[in-house]
Design brief:
19% strand; elongated; 11 strands; 31% helix; 257 residues; single chain; alpha+beta
Length: 257
């Protein structure tokens, strides 16, 4: 190492977005030839001297996305791994964007595990899942689901999430605000005083009958919906996570969902 390089060791630089860092090693001034250390959070980063001098070096351990998510150090990047990043940023939006929670109140208590605040960990998990790159019968990528494995789940984590086709993902979608104080699957029939029982069935609305009481209409819905969930589970058996299949087969509808 020549004298100029030695003189630069320990020299501090102010970056545009991540505070100060200092040089700890120089092998060359070109790509990844300079190693700098950030103070808080501590992290070693390889860069070139031109970018360092102009402040265009950032700390990948510094939370930037919604003040929580950080890119981390590893093989996955936001430019190459666009699908992983899109899923990750979407989760963080649902968990930490107040505007999103205002528009989608069902996510008001949603959160993400500490491990997944690091994009590298989330992307690694995605690529370890057998159905991450799977597509359904309409050539759509499987969707990330947090509700099937753990009922009433609010936490995005490796133990609570899996990839499922859109048809499976929509199975347990609730419409609580639309039905008001009636049980799930029930609505009032205008002008008759009776109660209708209806259920989505492979993309269409199936009429299950009209009943004198909400409870009778709900029972009809419950029986049919549980049958339908099992039918969809069997359709996708072997093409979804075994845990998801098992959860769907055992799923029971609750009146207050």
């Amino acid at each position: 190492m020549n004298n100029t390089k030695i003189e630069l060791l320990g020299k501090e630089f102010e970056t545009n977005s991540s505070g100060k860092c200092f040089i700890i090693n120089i092998e060359s001034y070109k790509k990844d030839g300079v190693v700098v250390a950030f103070y808080e959070p501590f992290c070693l980063v390889k860069c070139n001297y031109v970018n360092l001098y102009s402040g265009r070096v950032s700390n990948p351990m510094l939370p930037k996305l919604y003040g929580k998510g950080f890119l981390g150090v590893g093989e996955y990047s936001t430019t190459v791994n666009k699908r992983e990043y899109g899923l990750w940023s979407g989760i963080l939006e649902r968990c930490y964007s107040l505007e999103y929670k205002r528009k989608q109140p069902t996510y008001k208590d949603a959160t993400i595990c500490k491990e997944w605040l690091n994009f590298q960990n989330f992307a690694t998990w995605c690529n370890e899942q057998p159905f991450f790159n799977a597509k359904d019968d309409k050539q759509r990528y499987y969707q990330l689901d947090k509700d099937i494995l753990v009922r009433g789940n609010k936490i995005y984590s490796p133990d609570t999430c899996c990839f499922v086709p859109n048809e499976v993902n929509k199975l347990l979608t609730l419409r609580g605000l639309a039905r008001g104080d009636l049980p799930i699957g029930v609505c009032r029939q205008k002008g008759t005083g009776k109660f209708l029982s209806q259920c989505n069935y492979f993309g269409s609305r199936k009429h299950l009958g009209s009943f004198k009481t909400p409870q009778e209409a709900y029972v009809a819905y419950k029986i049919f919906k549980e049958y339908y969930i099992k039918e969809v589970a069997e359709k996708w058996k072997g093409e979804i996570d075994d845990r998801a299949y098992s959860s769907l087969i055992k799923y029971e509808i609750s009146e207050d969902e």
